[in-house]
Structures are given as structure tokens and as C-alpha cells.
Amino acid sequence: MANIINIIILLSVASKFNLSIVIGHFGYKKRDQHTWVKTYKLCGGKLQSPVSISSSKSIDIPLPALEIIGYHDYLPRPLYLKNTGHSVAMYINNHSRKKLPYIFGAVLNENAEYEIDHLHFHWGAKNNRGSEHILNGVRYPMEMHIVHRNKAYLNFSNAVNYEDGLVVLGIFFQLQEQNNKLLYPIINELTSVQWLNEEVKLSTSVTLSSLLPNNIDVFYTYKGSLTTPPCNEVVTWIIFPTPVPISFGQLNQFRSLSNGEDTLADNFRRLQDIGLRKVYVRRLNSFLFTKYNGTVFNITNLDWFFH
pLDDT tens-digit profile of 205-227? Predict the structure, then answer.
């Protein structure tokens, strides 16, 4: 899941910052991924991520909107960027205990709020691969995961023990000729984290809304897992089909990073079997509103599995 815990760091650093952490080593080569389950049993579960999403096989319902609070405000500083060896992660040192951006609504339980924990990226060595999820047969060159923790739980390490612990927003990136200036606060610091475990304080702040696609009204959602060990099946995924632009040059800056042994790229997990899981899609059209008597769907009646 977003390499969803792509962060391998010293325990001393882990205690200083509230980070998502994997203790141990795992690789992304095909032969390495097949061995994950030997060390991390949960990686062999039936609700694993990522998956291939198909519009024609998804179930259309008029879900409530995803509410994003604080996404248009600058994140509290200092913000840090780190080369974890598996990804590049951005996290917040929130010593001041300022209110962090959070989300609610959509398919999330009533009164549940999910606060940002960190975000990270997955990308390919070539332009025809990189994203973890596939949408309608397309694998995008990069995917970003914004990881949120249920506020009911003290920290990330605690949240991964509960089935409603995490929500991850998945954002695809699509190549274009021109630079995406909204990515500059992160892109401009990549040269400072070229090597494994290098970390830098961002020189400019960033808003989460600047990293989102133009359209977040339409999204796919399903129940899944972290896409890195230990693969806990505690993630509600929300995937936006509208991609964010990134230039060839900007993507190549990610590809210039090192994982300590080789180029850091192709850091995506192989597709997992969707099994009996349902994928829902939020669309707002007249047919759906007629079908549901002009009201949004009551998510308490939502069934996530075929029987």
C-alpha cells in the first residue's frame, strides 16, 4: 500500500517522529516478493493490495463525498523528505501538536476521522510501469499514497492492528512535457535525498490539495492491505481515476535516487487477487439518483464482499 510503510529507519529516529516503519529487509524483484510471506505471514492473506480495477466490474453507487479538512492549508513545518530505500516519504515533525489535515465521509464509518500520517511514492524505471494499482488495464508511471490513521488510535503502530485503522488515498501520475510546478516543493529536494537514509527538511511548505487531482468527486474504493510488509489488512483504499500531471524530467529525478545497492525504481508490488471483494465507484449521475430516490447511499448497509 502504498509501500504503505515504506519507511525503514533507525529506531531512534522512529521514536523521535511518529512514522510508519518496517523493521527488516524486503525487495521488490519478483523472486523477492514471493518470499515476503515467509517472513511476514499477513502478506499471504485474502485481502491484499494492490489490485487491478475495472470500471465495468465496479459497482456504481451515489456515495457521500470524501471530505478533506485542512488540505488547502500549508502543512505545519518542519516537513521532512526521506529516502527510505523503498521509496521517498514525506512526513511531519508535529511537535507543536498543530491540527493536521484529516478526512471523513465517503465510505468511512460515521463519526470516524482519519488524520494524515505520511505520504510516499511508487514509480517505474520505464514509462509503462510504476503505479501499484492498475485502472482499466493502464499502469501509470507513478502512484502516490497519502496515508491516514484513524484518530481513534494513538499512532500508526497501534492503528495497523485494527481493521478500520487506515485510509490511503491513491493518486496516479501521468506524463506530460511541461513541469508540474505544484510538485516543486518535493521535486526540488530530491537531489538532497539521493542516497539511502538521507533526509532533508523541506525549504518550502506544501498543501495536500496541491498534490490531488482536479477531480476528487469520482473515486474507486475497496478493502485491502498495506502494499509492503507486514501487509496488514487494515486499509480502506480510495483511488482517484483522474491523474496528476508530472513531466518526464521530474519523473527522471525520482529515478536518479539510489536504494543503497541499485537505482531506486520499480518499487511497486505485484497485483494481488481481488477474490470475493467488491470495488465500488462513486459517480454522480441522474440514473443513480433516480435508482436511490435522489439520496446518497447509506454506507451502513454497504457489503464489501460477494457471497
Answer: 999 999 999 999 999 999 999 99
197 CB-near residues (< 8 Å, 6+ apart): 9, 82, 83, 84, 85, 260
**Do residues 208 and 71 make contact, with C-beta atoms less than 8 angstroms apart?**
yes
**157 near 226, Cβ under 8 Å?**
no
- Tens-place pLDDT, residues 138-186: 999 999 999 999 999 999 999 999 999 999 999 999 999 999 999 999 9
Q: Which residues contact 289 (CB under 8 A, 6 or more apart)?
A: 62, 295
Q: Which CA distances in Å does 270 have to 22, 29, 220? A: 19, 9, 19
Tens digit of pLDDT for each residue in 104-125? 999 999 999 999 999 999 999 9
Catalytic residue of the set 72, 86, 118, 145: 86
Q: Is 34 an active-site residue?
A: no
Q: What is the 3-state secondary structure (H, E, C) of the chain?
A: CCCCCCCCCCHHHHHHCCCCCCCCCCCCCHHHHCCHHHHCHHHHCCCCCCCEECHHHCEEECCCCEEEECCCCECCCCEEEEECCCCEEEEECCCCCCCCCEEEECCCCCCCCEEEEEEEEEECCCCCCCCCCEECCECCCEEEEEEEEECCCCCHHHHCCCCCCEEEEEEEEEEECCCCHHHHHHHCCHHHHCCCCCEEECCCCCEHHHHCCCCCCCEEEEEECCCCCCCCCCEEEEEEEEEEEEEHHHHHHHHCCECCCCECCCCCCCCCCCCCECCEEECCCHHHHHHCCCCCCCHHHCCCECC
Residue with cell 443513480: 288
Burial, 263: exposed, middle or buried (Cβ in 10 Å; 0-12, 13-18, 19+)? Answer: exposed
Task: For 11-26, write each residue's pLDDT tens digit.
Answer: 333 333 434 445 457 9
Please give the Cα distance from 142 to 172 (Å, whole number): 6
